[in-house]
Task: structure prediction
Amino acid sequence: MDSTTLLLFLKAALVGISIAAPVGPIGLLTIQRTLERGMAVGLATGMGAALADAVYGAIGAFGVGWIIHALAAARMPLALGGGALLLWLAWRTWRAPLATSAASVSGGSDLLRCLAGTFVLTLSNPATILSFVAVFGALSGGALGPISPVSMILGVFAGSSLWWLALSLVVARGRHFFTPAWRRRINAVSAVALAAFAIWQWISALAT
Result:
């Protein structure tokens, strides 16, 4: 890997971190699931978003115009579907019994279910692709070399994955500081916030 490719990879990694880092519905789910079910489930939750970021990054990096237009045309149903999924997750979080200890994961299917859920949830927000198209256009300067798109996609995935790993690790290490009462409050706040994100997504879609 030459210095130009490495620099592009590092810039894309910073893009991945900056997109993943703001506290949104995926961040709330990662924190809540890490507290209730352990680091593996929390990390799987975040990695679903990292994979979705990589998919949108690939679309932005390769400039696949017809996919961009198709996503823009499907903005309304995607937003409505994503909002419904958020409301369902909010209800489950509100109703979930408080775990007394970090639950062991019975198998890979549990992790895959968490990963797939947040993958779909992240993809249901097509506005994300506009950020990738704009940022990747600025990074590439309008002239991508044969390896540049791959370097940017890998960089976005690496940066996003690093953020979710750090978040789930920090929450898992500090889990013993949270009393059952505090964890009940966190679950309640997470449920309300997820519902608010759903309503905001619906309002934004209807307003455009």
